[in-house]
Amino acid sequence: MGELSCDDIKLCMISYFFFNDKSFLCVEELAILLINIYINILHHDRDRSHFTFHVRPASVAFVAALVTNGGAAVAISVEEVVLVVLGTWWWGESTEVEPQYLGAKIEGDVVTLDFVKKMMDDFKNQKCLHKRYAFQIVLQMREMLQALPSLVDINVPDASLLTVCGDVHGQFYDLINIFELNGLPSEENPYLFNGDFVDRGSFSVEVILTLFAFKCMCPSAIYLARGNHESKSMNKIYGFEGEVRSKLSETFVELFAEVFCYLPLAHVINQKVFVVHGGLFSVDGVKLSDIRAIDRFCEPPEEGLMCELLWSDPQPCPGRGPSKRGVGLSFGADVTRRFLQDNNLDLVVRSHEVKDEGYEIEHDGKLITVFSAPNYCDQMGNKGAFIRFEAPDLKPNIVTFSAVPHPDVKPMAYANNFLRMFQ
């Protein structure tokens, strides 16, 4: 293969692992490439930007077996090599697990319930998950979310339940309380979390890794929608970026930003209940097919359907008006009614706003706001809520709850310094 520059190698690796584009390399060539990169890391200058790697001839069969775990003598997978190569060479940090690490561990590539429980217990005791396992979870989530449509249909069998939660905003101990009140996510007890998992609360890393881990454990146990705070601009200001940098590393700032772009924008429960973080649209006639067709793999735009799904709010008067937030719009009961009629739906469930009781029913009973971060930012005094829908009638059963104590780490502890002055 001759000499490859660092940029050549990055392009190949990005294409292969992050975009599933195998046109650059066959698996044997990739195997040789990765092993030679690793050899060069061990024996050459650590300045990774100025030298080239000469990919030396090697035993294709041996290296392919090594990387694909095909050889009985060597227990290592492609993922193992990627964790070492990407972690050590590209991002300049080790993903090796130190002998003294006693926290939760993923055995192989399978996220189990025992792992998630151990991880949550560690988080409750303010212990960190090793970066290696955080890395595995985030990469698994990326692959899983990338395959989903922008609008996900959820089927709830008769006599079964689905629980819908609103904003959590980094309030990990209140998330744990939800699970204690309503049971852990499982195939028999599924949840839909409706965006704004992170920011403001100072346990956002714990929240997002817990939700992601449950999704990795059992994809049908938990559904995740994007909120307006799953974006670079909001994370930079309201704390998540700083928290990730503090608890994990700079690498994970970019990883989470990318994965957030793959989160679906909305869900429909049994073809009857439309669930979205923000709200509805500046024009009539939007169909579910239009939402499915949105190219969501980007940072939220400042206008258009995607923006409005993430940012809009209901208003008491009919029609439409400007948003108090400066993004999206406000929409009345007539807008909600026409959207439901156009799409043969019964109800809109959204989040995005603090409510004193944790929820509010508006628009002649056709729209419910649910917010699941009680005593928001340790100062609002509101309750939290979640909604249980039982099939086939899907009548909403709203459960409210109060805040629970958490360690003495203030909200916005990792936020932009200018904002912290006013906290």
Class by SSE composition: alpha/beta
Q: What is the fourth-level CATH superfamily of the largest domain?
A: Metallo-dependent phosphatases
Helix content: 25-40%
> Could you give the order of strands across the largest sheet?
3-7-8-12-14-13
Q: What's the CATH topology label of the largest domain?
A: Purple Acid Phosphatase, chain A, domain 2
**CATH architecture level-2 label of the largest domain:** 4-Layer Sandwich
Structure in words:
Its main location: cytoplasm. With 423 residues, this protein is of the alpha/beta class. The chain folds into 2 domains: 3-90, no CATH class; 113-420, Purple Acid Phosphatase, chain A, domain 2, CATH 3.60.21.10. Helix content is 37%, strand content 14%. The chain has helices spanning 6-18, 27-43, 60-68, 78-90, 113-124, 131-146, 172-182, 204-217, 232-238, 240-247, 250-260, 288-292, 305-311, 333-342, 417-420, and strands at residues 3-4, 53-54, 151-154, 161-165, 191-193, 222-224, 266-269, 273-276, 313-314, 320-322, 329-331, 347-350, 359-362, 367-370, 384-390, 395-401. The longest helix is centred in the first third of the chain and has 17 residues, at 27-43.
